[in-house]
Structure formats: structure tokens, C-alpha cells
Specification:
The complex is a heterodimer of chains A (223) and B (499). Chain A is built from 7 helices and 10 strands. Chain A has 223 residues and is an alpha/beta fold. Chain A has a 6-stranded mixed sheet with strand order 6-7-8-3-9-10. Chain A has a 4-stranded antiparallel sheet with strand order 2-1-4-5, with helices on one face. With 499 residues, chain B is an alpha+beta fold. Helices cover 43% and strands 22% of the residues of chain B. Chain B contains 13 helices and 17 strands. Classes of the chains: A alpha/beta (223), B alpha+beta (499).
Chain lengths: 223, 499
């Protein structure tokens, strides 16, 4: 379960201090599927980075389970990202020189598994997202939808408790978008994940159990 | 994962890998060749020096000649130009011609001798393994024919007429003229006890026998084989030195190179001192230090113990080597070294710039890896590992190219000429039958061992080790810069910059 308390994030810019999040207080129960919407520059990505332990708040606290993320050293945050949190990005962020299977294996590298175990789990993850036939393909040899499936496999292969998706369908056509959302929704149900999706797309947001609106750094519930 | 990722990166970014490896290879090969040539030139210099100073000599002690005081002739103790003086009744006269001959043994112009106690002082110093002394001399022989004086006068030569202008039919040319020759060869008095240092340590016996302890004080001589050949002398013959007959007991040649030995003739030291009138005098002390690390300390001790002496190490003596070998040495020492440093620095710089720009280009990649749980250390290891392997590839190629370059030079074997002035000056003639000249003209130039040496570059593990170490160093430096840049990337910023 996520607990956000008075979470504030400001950035120093040449034009002065910009407030991305303004005293956000929020609770997200384990296993919930949440969609975060809002205008560009409203603080959606900043909030996702706070939830993903990629960024520290200026003030306030972010707690994941028993871990207070805002007070942890970088090494511990890297460990939490390695074991507990999975990321899916709008641009897929696959490593172009690695094959699909090797890209998925990168998520297991910090866990210290044997080569055999790493390869086995990567293969299983890719089978689960429907890419059993594309293990040795490089990203450039895959369609956008297939690349996002590889990215989802990479996020899920370590069996995280939380899956954070930043505009996961932003670069995809409608049909592919629906396929990806079907996949994410299915995995969410099957794996018991906490799934938090940042999206501009109302069709995607409507699939979520809970919808949040983030505007000028403040969060409101959206019905 | 590390190995797979590294392999994929290097093989898929071939252009960058090739540029870094090629730059490194060029630098490494150049450093190897320059280092090798420097070692080859050092060996050649050592070979030339060994032919003069012997194998194992670390330090030589000599004494510079002093400026003669006003009114002095500068010829004391056998120094200075030779002067032959004949009495009115000397020579064999026949048919109006008088034949004159005289032989002198001197230490030669431009050199000096000093007291033999210097050897005792040197041998008694700490860390001196061995010491021996030599007396280097020049034997100048005059022989000639001049018109007989009384014959010319008796037959009506005009008073005040120029010498040699007497009646036709007098003198060696039958027209009142004169003819004479001056022959010069070098003589080195050595300790026949057979110390492990000194000029004879770098020669090999060609014929006859070497000196034995019982030869001390006797008139026996060992000849340089080249000198013996040109003088048509051989073992069993006799040769006149300083007006005394010497039995030739052996001939020797240099083992350190194809050069001649340091002297034309070698005689026992005490004999040399006796016949030259330089009792208890020596011209050079050869010192071997207990170890190479003690040479500087021994040099300092010698200088303190013998304040008037000139104390030189092999390193100092190397500067006395001249000729194209010296030019090569200068070229390697200056141009080669700087060229190596510049190319190496350029290779390192290219490697650093390409690695750091590669990290900048892969910002999203490293940001993603950090986002999915890679630690800073893991990302730095990956970047540094890639740089190290690129450096190692450059190193392997560089070693191969360097070895090929060295092989090519060794096959071509460029011939370098070298000459090194001997410590003590001797006469200027080349041997019996040498040049004609005026009285007192001999013994004015300095002898030198001149040789042609084919440059051979030694391939040592040291040179290869230096090359590999430089390649690894280049990779480490580039990896350190790239890793430092990658470590500074915060995952959120990396992902934001990608967006």
C-alpha cells in the first residue's frame, strides 16, 4: 500500500521555483488499478517518479508498505526498484543492441540469478505476453506493440508488487492500444498487482478502478 | 548479463569501437617501436662502450690534463707532442746519407696520468666489486734518411746554404733531399692479474695465448688482430715498443661488436710504466659497482676520495658516442619520445571523448537501467568494462603491429656508425708504414673505436608489458570518465531528458 503525506516537489528553474506537486496526500491500497489523468505539466510524471522511487520529494513522505522511500539511501532505493517496482514507459525504452530476451533479462541482472534461471524466467515472461516466437529479435525488428509487450515482460519478469506505467499506449494505434490494455488488465488481475497508469487517454483511464485528476500539483478524485 | 551486454554493445557499435581501438593500437605500436629502438640504440651504445671500457665496467676514473703554467712546455711526464733529438754522431752513414731511427713511448697529447694510489683508493671503497687500472700510451717511431752533413760541407757547399742543398748525389733521393716517416700505434699497459673489469674483458683470443700472472714485468705483448694483420705481425714475431723488443704472445679481437679493440697493443702494466718512465702512474681506473643500484653512490664516493679525478658512469660515457648512432639516439630520445607522448595523449583523449559522448548518447538507456533496479556501481562497471575491452583490443592490435614494425626494422637492420673517444689520448698514426710528417707532429690526435653496428631491436617482455599496461591505462582512464558521467545520471532526469 502507498501512503503519500503532504508530498511536495518543487524545481529550481531560471524563471524561479516551479511547484510540480503541492502537498499531495493520497492512499493507494495494494492491488488497486489507478489511472492518473491531467493536463501536460500538471505533475503526473513527477508523481509517478515519486511512487517509483526515482525522485525524492522536496517535503512530505512517500511510504510503500513499511518503507519510507523519501528517507532511504540511493542504494536501498535501487534495491526496491529492482525487486518491488516495475516500470513501463511510453517510448518502451528497450536497449537497441540487445534481443527481446536479453532486454527482459536486464531486469533480473540486479537479482543475482544464474544465467540459466535468468534465461528461463525471461523466456516465460515473453511467452506470457505472446512473444514466444520473438525471443531473439532486436527491438528494431519488432512493431511498436511488440516492443511494448517486451517492455511489459521486462517489468513483470521480476514479479513486482507494483507496476507503474507512464503513457503505456501513447505511441500505439487504437487496436494495439486495446491489446496492450487487455494484456495489462489481465496481468493485473492474474498477478494481484498494484497498477498505476498515467494517461491522457480517457479510454484507457476508464478501464481503471479509480481515476485521479492531477492539476497544478494537486490531486482530486475523478468519478 | 555483463558479458552479453558488453559484447552486444561493442559489436553493434563497431564504428566507435574501431576508432577507439585503432587510436589506441597506433599509440601502443608507436610506443613499442620507440621503446624498442631506444633499447636497441642503448645496446649498440653499450656495445661500442664495451669495446673501449670492457664488459662490466660501471665507472671510469680519469684525470683531465692541466693547463701548462706560463713558461712550461706542457710536456712533463711524457705528455705533449713527441720531439726527437739526435746527436751529431748518431745514425749510420753511407754514400752521403745518414739513416736515423728513434722510438718514444708517451702518454700522448690531451691526456694525463695520475698516481697509481688512486686505484688502491678506489678498490677500498664500499660497494666496489672490482677495480683495475691501465696506462694508455702512444708509441711514436721515427725513421728516416738525411744527407750526411760533413760530406756536404767537405764538397764545397756554400756557407749559409739551406740544409739539404748540397751537392747532387747526396741524400736518399740523390739530390740532397731528406726522407723520413713517423709511425704511431697505441699501447695499453694492463694488469695481467686478470681483474673482471677493464679493456680485455670485451676481447676474445684469436691466436696464441692471453696474459698470465707470470708475464708481469716482462717484455711480452698481445696485439689487436686487425692491427696485427695490417702490420703483418703474428704470434712469435717481435715488435719494438719504446725502444725495447717485445715478444708477441697472442692476438685478440673485440667480442662486443665488429669493432677493433681499444688499443693496438697490450703489454703488462708495470712494463709499460717502466719503459715510458711513468713509474707508479696510471691513466684510467675501471670500477665495477657491487650492484647497478650502487653506481651513483660509488660515483659520489670516488669523486670525494679523488677530488681531482673525472669520474664517469656508463651513462655519462654514452654521450661520448658519436656518429649516426648518436643521431639515432638523439632522434629517439627527443622526437620519438615526444611523438609517442603526443600520439598516446591523443589516443587517450579520443578514447575519453568518445566514451563520454557515448554515455551522453545512451542517457535514456542508463536511466532505464537505473529505473529497473541497476545500481550505480553496475552501470559504472558496464561503461568501464566496455572501455577496458576497447583499450585491450587496441592493445592487442597495437602489440601485433608493434612487433611487426620491430620485425621489419630488424630485417632491414639499418647500419649505424659509431665512434667513441677513448679515455686517454694516444697517437694519431695508423701503424707502421704510416704517414710521413714533420718532427713532433705525432701524438696529437685522440684515438677512437669506430664501428658499424646493425641496429637490432630487442623484443622483451618489458616492452610488451609496457604496451599492455598503457592499453589498460587508456581503457581505465576512458572508463573512469565515462563511468563518472554515468554515475552522475539520476534516473528521473535521464528519463525526463529522453522524453
Amino acid at each position: 500500500m502507498y501512503e503519500l503525506s503532504e508530498l511536495t516537489k518543487t524545481y529550481e528553474t531560471k524563471r524561479g521555483v516551479v511547484s510540480a506537486l503541492n502537498k499531495v496526500t493520497l492512499s493507494i491500497p495494494t492491488g488497486q488499478m489507478v489511472a492518473i489523468q491531467g493536463p501536460t505539466g500538471g505533475g503526473k510524471s513527477t508523481l509517478l517518479q515519486m511512487l517509483g522511487a526515482l525522485e525524492r520529494p522536496t517535503s512530505g513522505a512517500v511510504t510503500l508498505g513499511d518503507d519510507e522511500l523519501s528517507k532511504m539511501p540511493d542504494s536501498r532505493l535501487a534495491e526496491i526498484r529492482a525487486r518491488t517496482i516495475g516500470f513501463v514507459f511510453q517510448g518502451f525504452n528497450l536497449i537497441p543492441t540487445l534481443t527481446a530476451q536479453e532486454n527482459v533479462e536486464t531486469a533480473l541482472a540486479p537479482l543475482g540469478l544464474s544465467n540459466t534461471e535468468r534465461q528461463r524466467r525471461a523466456t516465460e515472461a515473453l511467452e506470457k505476453v505472446g512473444l514466444a516466437e520473438r525471443l531473439t529479435h532486436h527491438p528494431s525488428e519488432l512493431s511498436g506493440g511488440q516492443q511494448q509487450r517486451v517492455a511489459i515482460a521486462r517489468a513483470l519478469v521480476k514479479e513486482p508488487k507494483v507496476l507503474l506505467a507512464d503513457e503505456p499506449t501513447g505511441n500505439l494505434d487504437e487496436q494495439t492500444r486495446d491489446e496492450i490494455m487487455d494484456l495489462l488488465e489481465g496481468l493485473w488481475r492474474d498477478e494481484g498487482l498494484t497498477l498505476i497508469i498515467v494517461t491522457h487517454d480517457s479510454a484507457v483511464a476508464k478501464r481503471a478502478e479509480r481515476r485521479l485528476q492531477l492539476k497544478h500539483g494537486a490531486v482530486t478524485e475523478k468519478k | 548479463m555483463f558479458g552479453t551486454y558488453l559484447y552486444r554493445e561493442l559489436s553493434n557499435r563497431r564504428k566507435q569501437t574501431t576508432i577507439i581501438a585503432a587510436g589506441m593500437a597506433l599509440a601502443i605500436a608507436l610506443v613499442m617501436i620507440v621503446s624498442g629502438v631506444a633499447a636497441g640504440v642503448r645496446d649498440a651504445q653499450g656495445s661500442v662502450l664495451a669495446s673501449i671500457y670492457g664488459v662490466g665496467t660501471d665507472i671510469t676514473v680519469t684525470q683531465e690534463p692541466e693547463q701548462p703554467a706560463e713558461g712550461e712546455a706542457g710536456q712533463g711526464q711524457g705528455q705533449g707532442p713527441s720531439r726527437f733529438e739526435f746527436g751529431a754522431e748518431e745514425g749510420d752513414s753511407a754514400d752521403g746519407t745518414t739513416a736515423l731511427a728513434q722510438s718514444q713511448l708517451t702518454s700522448g697529447a690531451g691526456s694525463t696520468t695520475f698516481d697509481a694510489t688512486a686505484l688502491t683508493a678506489a678498490a677500498g671503497l664500499d660497494d666496489v666489486a672490482a677495480a683495475t687500472a691501465t696506462l694508455t700510451l702512444s708509441n711514436v717511431s721515427f725513421s728516416g734518411e738525411i744527407p750526411t752533413g760533413d760530406a756536404a760541407a767537405a764538397e764545397g757547399a756554400a756557407p749559409g746554404a739551406e740544409p739539404g742543398t748540397g751537392e747532387a748525389g747526396r741524400g736518399p733521393d740523390g739530390a740532397g733531399g731528406s726522407s723520413f716517416s713517423v709511425d704511431t700505434f697505441s699501447v695499453t699497459g694492463i694488469d695481467v692479474a686478470g681483474e673482471s673489469v677493464g679493456p680485455l674483458t670485451s676481447v676474445g683470443l684469436v691466436d696464441g695465448r692471453a696474459f698470465e700472472t707470470t708475464d708481469a714485468g716482462t717484455n711480452v705483448v698481445v696485439l689487436d688482430s686487425g692491427y696485427a694483420t695490417t702490420s703483418e705481425l703474428s704470434v712469435g714475431d717481435t715488435v719494438e715498443i719504446g725502444g725495447e723488443e717485445f715478444d708477441i704472445i697472442g692476438t685478440v679481437s673485440s667480442t662486443s661488436s665488429d669493432s677493433t679493440t681499444a688499443s693496438n697493443t697490450y703489454i703488462p702494466l708495470d712494463t709499460a710504466q717502466r719503459i715510458s718512465g711513468l713509474e707508479d702512474q696510471i691513466s684510467t681506473v675501471y670500477v665495477q659497482a657491487a650492484s647497478s643500484t650502487e653506481i651513483t653512490a660509488v660515483q659520489a664516493s670516488l669523486q670525494t676520495a679523488l677530488p681531482d679525478a673525472t669520474v664517469k658512469t656508463q651513462e655519462d660515457l654514452a654521450s661520448s658516442v658519436s656518429g649516426s648512432l648518436s643521431t639515432a639516439s638523439d632522434l629517439v630520445g627527443k622526437l620519438g619520445t615526444w611523438l609517442s607522448i603526443i600520439v598516446l595523449a591523443a589516443a587517450f583523449l579520443i578514447s575519453v571523448l568518445l566514451t563520454t559522448s557515448g554515455v551522453a548518447r545512451r542517457t535514456r538507456e542508463f536511466g532505464t537501467l537505473k529505473a529497473i533496479g541497476w545500481s550505480n556501481g553496475a552501470v559504472v562497471r558496464q561503461v568501464a568494462g566496455e572501455s577496458l575491452v576497447q583499450g585491450a583490443i587496441g592493445g592487442v592490435v597495437g602489440v601485433a603491429v608493434g612487433l611487426l614494425g620491430i620485425l621489419a626494422i630488424n630485417i632491414a637492420a639499418p647500419v649505424l656508425s659509431a665512434s667513441a673517444a677513448a679515455t686517454t689520448a694516444v697517437g694519431g698514426g695508423a701503424g707502421p708504414g704510416g704517414r710521413n710528417g714533420r718532427f713532433g707532429d705525432a701524438a696529437t690526435t685522440t684515438a677512437a673505436a669506430t664501428t658499424d653496428i646493425a641496429l637490432q631491436i630487442p623484443v622483451t617482455l618489458g616492452i610488451i608489458g609496457i604496451a599492455v599496461a598503457l592499453a589498460i591505462l587508456g581503457g581505465l582512464i576512458a572508463g573512469a570518465f565515462g563511468g563518472w558521467r554515468a554515475a552522475r545520471l539520476r534516473p528521473a532526469e535521464a528519463l525526463r531528458s529522453a522524453a
